[in-house]
Structure prediction request, 894 residues.
Amino acid sequence: MPKKIIVIGSGAAGMSAASSARKYDLEAKITVFTEDEYIAYSPCVIPWTIGGKVGWDNIIMHDPQYYKREKNIDVITKTLVTDVNDVDKTVTAGGKKYEYDSLVIATGGTIFIPPIDGRNLKNVFVVKTIKDGQSIQSALRESKTIVIIGAGIVGLETAAVLNEIGKKVVVVEMMDQIIPRIIDKDMADTVQKHLEEKGIKFIVRSPIQAINGNEKVESVTAANIDYPCDMVIFATGVCANLTIPKILKLDIGQLGAVEVSAAMQPYRDGKIVSDIFLAGDVVQCRSAVVSGPIMSQLGSTAVKQGMIAGSNAAGDKKIAGPVSSPWVGVIGDIHVAGTGLSLGLASWYGIKTLEGKATGFTRARYYPDRKPLTVKVSADVFSHKIVGAQIIAGEDATGRINWLASAIASGTIVEDFIYRSENAYCPPTSMVRDVVLMAVDDLRNKL
Amino acid sequence: MPKKIIVIGSGAAGMSAASSARKYDLEAKITVFTEDEYIAYSPCVIPWTIGGKVGWDNIIMHDPQYYKREKNIDVITKTLVTDVNDVDKTVTAGGKKYEYDSLVIATGGTIFIPPIDGRNLKNVFVVKTIKDGQSIQSALRESKTIVIIGAGIVGLETAAVLNEIGKKVVVVEMMDQIIPRIIDKDMADTVQKHLEEKGIKFIVRSPIQAINGNEKVESVTAANIDYPCDMVIFATGVCANLTIPKILKLDIGQLGAVEVSAAMQPYRDGKIVSDIFLAGDVVQCRSAVVSGPIMSQLGSTAVKQGMIAGSNAAGDKKIAGPVSSPWVGVIGDIHVAGTGLSLGLASWYGIKTLEGKATGFTRARYYPDRKPLTVKVSADVFSHKIVGAQIIAGEDATGRINWLASAIASGTIVEDFIYRSENAYCPPTSMVRDVVLMAVDDLRNKL
Prediction:
């Protein structure tokens, strides 16, 4: 009898789980249930599709027919899973019961919208699915001024794209800096200044209070001031979607997401629930830096966890490491990246840190088209372990942040990083001593 | 009494040694002796200055006046050091004796030119110093066809630049592939095909036999065939310049360069020679992969070693780690990078390896202006340690190769790399699972 594997959710975690299960078990019957119509696309690209840089059709990598034909995976779209029973091992989807031997829950998250007046008015959107993006794009034709709620990476990527296509953009952020929590104020201020020079307006330290209008949005109120606008986009971050975990009474961790083992298995009353695996925005992760859990709601994390959860659902024995969660955003023409803890988060966890910082270029100082590159690295003053890093660059932040993320995930101390690290050099693509190493040199001198 | 520190050589190693000595000791009398007229420039950029992409004036970072004014370092140019005596601790330069308390030898290397007929003809050049580059540039006006001897990175960078400015370029290589020793044949063939499509001609498996002509070069003979040309450029790699080490009777290692301790100190008859430090192309390095020594004649290695040698000469206690030597070259519009051992070198050392390979893009598969990206990673079949990696990419190879170099330098095994590694993702700058991780996934599946 082939093994019956059911996956709930068709995002990055769900689809990589299904594909990885297939790689491990060529015979299994694998079924994916999803509420969505479109599967296997990257929600991270939606800011650019809204702006017309990429077509909607291009971003959908595969359709259900592809999965059936190439991988013998059944993807059942537009079908809500309403119940899961781990005693008789069944899933109820679209009113029908399906048996499973292994189950992967990859139900992702939902955008948090604060409970304020006017949030159901016309032209109030979130940036999450293709449908959201398409709705925004249609409404853009008649919108001149757009308020974006939330100055995180997705909010700013969207702001920069809308600014580029000629819209007036106002970004409202409740915290006292943009990109709060994940980068430091000095780095955030550099990004804000860059975007202000392009004409984007920022309202910080201003929680949104109301969205005003009759049928359609006409203004938002933040910190007691009204900002007239034609459109509001919430980019307020994602909360784990706990509907199914709650049905199963799985243990929910202190960050409001499902606690899982390294094998991506959930707990109930502290004991592992067998034959169930989770992946993606619905779980909390082990941090590589602090002893407590941490959220890592990134597409790349979802894919990695999906690979582990799916393989294990098929019988493999894989485990996930602690996370340092490297991320990168492209905001207009600058790349902003980070990994580990910002100074603010480190201080919130009670970790005393010192930081090193260096500024240089992505190419040799004299090479044409060089772009500025600033790197910050911080370390725990007791252990000297690198706990966080941030980069702002005109290009090439991605490989550099992965390099630093890998060091953090391995618990590398500053002295050992200097001792072992080298950098490739060629004038059209780096400085002779990379700015990453210059920043760590600076940190070592301070420790 | 301020400490007297003498540095011999004004390349990357020498100048970073002098600057690092000054950082550690604000009082020391620091003197740099150099045969050269121009100091503190990157010879790595010369292919592009020849082509006119960068001006000669731009590539000289600083002159002797700068070092005097900003760092109180005396740089004595156009002055040859003819003797060093480590008993009375003196250096003889320009016919005068100078006392030292600490000495840094950073005399670099010289281009190897095989002892063949015609090598002293007019229009036969090497690519090393600014003067070499300027001589090439002058002679280019009357040259249509140029033969480059040696298909290493510098040879190919030069070939691509000369091709771009409309010259007919023939590259002659004695080994059976281009970029021999440091990358594998499949990767080299990709680069060769790319350059052949641009019109560059390659003659491999063909040691140069003669350079022919009367006063001026008219052709070269390789593998018994004559290739007419107006100019010959040797890009045949660098040999350690051992004049001063031989005067001091320092131990020369099996690779023909000076053996040094982790603190960059030389040996004589197996015992450390005190108060002398070396850095740059003149030394051999400890390998992070094999137990024997290895050469790492890279600008970035020279800077790192110079920092250590110079600091230690001033009284600091720094050590250099084993090297995985990441390098990157920009050949026309492709970036080629490597670290650790190629398959050929691994096999030469008797290391049995398996390799993983993946091909993808530098941005999301659907994102405009994405460039192809191929990554190869190899591991020791016994230890599973990553021993080598190579990248060919349209952009952004540098950070990725540093990431892999760091893993090799830390002795990371494949399973641990997968367990701990994450990648930053944003559609304009990466795939959701980076090609580096895809290559390591492939390798793990084979192990």
